[in-house]
UniProtKB/TrEMBL annotation:
Region annotation (Disordered) ranges: 264-285
Domain called NAD(P)-binding: residue spans: 8-188
Cited Pfam families: NAD_binding_10
Protein name: NAD(P)H dehydrogenase (Quinone)
SUPFAM superfamilies: NAD(P)-binding Rossmann-fold domains
Gene3D superfamilies reported for this sequence: NAD(P)-binding Rossmann-like Domain (3.40.50.720), UDP-galactose 4-epimerase, domain 1 (3.90.25.10)
Database matches in InterPro entries: NAD(P)-bd_dom, NAD(P)-bd_dom_sf, NmrA-type_oxidoreductase
Length: 285
């Protein structure tokens, strides 16, 4: 019997992955890791063992990984010393005798100069640390989540329009549910060790395309209104975001406008065995 452990079990992606794993493996073969197990009580009620562990506590991680064959490392939050935390997870997995570790960095095109503060550098560090370890690994590159679209365009887009810095780049976002399902496939099937996948959703859309989709949904015109970067940040702050969060949102919008994630679905569609959820389907709810 092989045991699969998913970190971040109380978060969106970890919880969804464990629920998809339940469709493929018995609960007795699944473990969730959480800093506060009470926040994963719904998973425990389904028979999944929830172990306590903090990425900053190597000893607790080593204990939590005991008897585990595969670990899914869900990245911790940005601006929280990701490098130290992820290095601790990898080291603990080695110490505990874990055979395979699956990691989910943001997709970055080969040769890209794109830098996202507190995301791309820790991701690169984690991938390099994992490659230098004794663990078998699989890298599942993620695009931006479709669920994060309101963060970029604001929650009042139906009323005020899609107001973002000008650009015609497209983004092939995916839902967390689709990504979680693909992760469950990789964790329960053979042949994925040593592979790197780019889990683009699709079809790729620009912010102007998003305005058109919202117009079709509402039945009235939702305008695409290009702003300067300064206007965008000011608008986000006026909407209640702290300045660092507004600047972080701008970094994502810049990358989208630059076409950083504009590829068609490929790896995600193959792993799912179906077409990923489209932006229009997601926005219609």
């Amino acid at each position: 019997m092989s045991t699969i452990l998913v970190t971040g079990a109380s978060g969106h992606l970890g919880r969804l992955t464990l629920r998809h794993l339940l469709e493929r493996r018995p609960a007795s073969e699944l473990v969730g890791l959480a800093r506060d197990p009470e926040k994963a009580a719904d998973l425990a009620a389904l028979g999944i063992e929830i172990r306590t562990g903090d990425y900053f506590d190597p000893d607790a991680l080593t204990r939590a990984f005991a008897g585990v064959e595969k670990v899914l490392l869900v990245p911790t939050h940005a601006f929280t010393d990701r490098q130290t935390q992820h290095a601790n997870v990898i080291a603990a997995a080695e110490t505990a005798g874990v055979e395979q570790l699956v990691y989910t960095p943001i997709i970055r095109k080969a040769g890209s100069r794109f830098e996202l503060p507190q995301v791309t550098e820790p991701d690169a560090f984690t991938v390099q640390t994992l490659a230098a370890s004794g663990l078998r690994s699989t890298i599942l590159g993620h695009p931006p989540y479709l669920e994060n679209l309101p963060f970029y365009i604001g929650s009042e887009a139906f009323e005020s329009g899609v107001r973002v810095p000008a650009g015609d780049g497209k983004v092939a976002s995916a839902t967390r549910a689709d990504l979680a399902e693909a992760q469950a496939v990789v964790l329960t099937e053979r042949g994925h060790e040593g592979k790197t996948y780019a889990l683009h959703g699709g079809p790729p859309v620009s912010f102007a395309d998003v305005a058109e989709i919202l117009s079709e949904i509402r039945g009235t015109t939702v305008r695409y209104v290009p702003l300067s970067e300064e206007e965008y940040v000011e608008r986000m702050i006026a909407g209640g975001l702290p300045e660092p969060a507004a600047a972080f949102a701008l970094s994502w919008v810049r990358a989208i406008n630059g076409g950083e994630w504009d590829e068609q679905p490929g790896d995600l569609e193959r792993l799912l065995g179906r077409t990923p959820t489209t932006p229009a389907e997601h926005l219609r709810g």
